[in-house]
Amino acid sequence: MCGRFTLAKPGEAVAAHFRLETAPVLSARYNIAPTQAVLAVRARSGGGREASGFRWGLIPSWARGAANPTAPLINARAEGLARKPAFREAWRQRRCLIPADGFYEWQPVEGKKQRCCWHIRRRDGELFAFAGLWEPWPPAVALPPGAASGQSCALITTRPNPLVAPVHDRMPVVLPPEVYAKWLDPAAEAAALEPLLQPWQADAWERVRVETPLPPA
Is 214 a domain residue? Predict the structure, then answer.
């Protein structure tokens, strides 16, 4: 799974990478956590792309009652997107890109209670995009106190590449820039996108040990 990630690049860099007309206003974030607001890029109805805030933790369209902030659907397994009711419609129609420049995974330390924390990022330090799904906030579900976003999202995960495998048995799907347009195209057949749900090659990544606890969000 992916439970924390980073986005420290400025809005101008995000706009250039994702070909946005307007640069989002961003501050460096080193500990983005579930239920917090995250930036996501999606196709704009009139053409092009737009970036806006989403709550990390997908709430299905058919949900009723109060949203449970303690059990958000933060990750969606690639193998079950077409079958799981919570993700099926979003997989077909509401895909997004979630900008990041690194993510964290934890590894148990033998003989000790604590876990080793790793920051996993591109070797070249560049931005990348998690493959994501989004949903508009269901009318029957009250927004949590303080939440400003009327939409929610989840990151798609897949099997790990050789760099991540010693740490965790899952990793987020990271999409290369050349497939962004295909991923965001609402007319794209979901079956044609399945080959994209693969781990990125390990030699493009590095794993750096960081101190715990993580820096504040």
Answer: no
Question: pTM score, two decimals?
Answer: 0.92
In a domain, 216, yes or no: no
How many C-beta atoms lie closer than 10 Å to residue 118's C-beta? 22
> Distance between CA 130 and CA 75 in Å, rounded?
11
Mean pLDDT, residues 24-46: 94
- Are 157 and 69 contacting, i.e. CB atoms less than 8 angstroms apart? no
- At 62 the pLDDT is 82
105 part of the active site: yes
Paired tokens of 61:
């369209």
- Report whether the peptide linkage leading into residue 213 is cis, meaning its omega lies within 30 degrees of zero: yes
Q: Which of these is catalytic: 2, 96, 117, 153?
A: 2
Rounded Cα gap, residues 157 and 68, in angstroms = 22
pLDDT computed for residue 17 by the predictor: 98
| pLDDT band (50, 70, 90) for residue 217 | very low
Task: Report the domain count for the chain.
Answer: 1
Strand (E) positions, 20-127?
A: 29-32, 37-43, 49-56, 75-77, 95-100, 102-108, 115-122
Q: Which amino acid is at 78?
A: A
Task: Point out the catalytic residue in the list 105, 117, 135, 153.
Answer: 105
Judge whether 41 and 21 are in contact, CB under 8 Å: no
Does 2 participate in catalysis according to the annotation?
yes
Mean pLDDT, rounded, of the chain: 90
106 beta partners: 117
Residue 175, in any domain of the structure:
yes
